[in-house]
Amino acid sequence: MNFNLSEEQSMIKDSVARFIADDYSFEQRTKNVAMEHGFNPATWQTFAELGWLSIPFPSSLGGFGGSAVDTMVIMEEFGKGLVAEPYVATVLLFGGLLAHSGEGEIQQELISGIIDGSLQGGFAYLERQSRFELSDVKTTAAADGELYRLNGEKTVVFNGAAANKLIVSARTAGDQCDENGISLFLIDTQAEGVSVVAYPMMDGQQAANITLNNVTGAQLIGELHQGFGLIQAVVNDTMLALCAEAQGIMQKLTDTTVEYSKTREQFGTAIGNFQALQHRMVDMFVAGEQTRSLLYRAVCSADANSEDALKDLLALKVMVGRAGKLIGGEAIQLHGGMGMTDELDVGHYVKRLMMINTTFGDADYNQQKFVKLSTQLG
């Protein structure tokens, strides 16, 4: 496999890295997450002007036509900078569902709004009882003329309070946990009957619980009853992107810890000179590099539409959960008491790793899926 980036990918990587170095310090990030919706609208507009919001979308929809590698490059740098802006919620989830569902007039209009930074979106799929199961859906949709009427409740909707539009999974046929019978619907968050309760997550980013009480005017996205396959495809793409973000975070934590060990003195010498601590930092480095290797494998499998793509992705998600716990825990311990403070960025990076681990299933859940898939494939 060739892991060298193309000239365009190197330019994207350098562009994001320069922005974070020059304009996205930890202090600025702290100010951003304290804003109304947990991010800075001006920073989001800068993302649009730099073209980052267009990268995952096909050229036929006005995008850059980027691959999984292009998205990986962006997300890894976002991880290093602990970027809080809703790239995952608006571009990868909401935009991804639109792009995968076809190239109609609605998709063209909304994706144009995403690319120019004027539209915020979100994907409402989780419910109180569903845990990590995407097919566990009690929210219902009933035909109302040419449109649909929605009733139900969705929880932990990323970017739910800032979103202008939402795509909602709802049951149009079948039993509560059936994969068949799930459909996707586009609604306006200002529509009558939509109630939004926003709250900050442990990583500083915002989510919302959304109640739908006889919400009319919902537009079907994709095919009726066939939404689960679309959901799974977009969630897999997004999970891969989150793993790339986690890789950036783990590299940042390892580098920061090594640098700290060179300046923090104990017993008259830098703590980095103690062999026991050197071994622990080597363990951090090895865990990060193992994750990087599996990330590259999963990205290449995704771009090649390999039959091993899902298996590689599940293995990667398990690795990210396990390696993230090791690296995050060591980073805090080797920084001592200050590693637990809000004033130091280390704890914030660790919290983001913990959130990534639980998004779309934690390491244990995805290991079970991996074993089941491996058994099926023989």
UniProtKB/TrEMBL annotation:
Xref: InterPro entries: Acyl-CoA_Oxase/DH_mid-dom (IPR006091), Acyl-CoA_Oxase/DH_mid-dom_sf (IPR046373), AcylCo_DH-like_C (IPR036250), AcylCo_DH/oxidase_C (IPR009075), AcylCoA_DH/ox_N (IPR013786), AcylCoA_DH/ox_N_sf (IPR037069), AcylCoA_DH/oxidase_NM_dom_sf (IPR009100)
Domain Acyl-CoA oxidase/dehydrogenase middle: 123-214
Cofactor(s) required, per the database record: FAD
Keyword Phosphoprotein listed: no
UniProt KW keywords: FAD, Flavoprotein, Oxidoreductase
Ranges of residues in domain Acyl-CoA dehydrogenase/oxidase C-terminal: 226-361
Keyword Lipid biosynthesis attributed: no
Acyl-CoA dehydrogenase/oxidase N-terminal domain mapped to chain residues: 6-117
Stored Pfam families: Acyl-CoA_dh_1, Acyl-CoA_dh_M, Acyl-CoA_dh_N
Protein family membership: Belongs to the acyl-CoA dehydrogenase family.
Record-given protein name: Pimeloyl-CoA dehydrogenase small subunit
Source organism of the structure: Spongiibacter thalassae
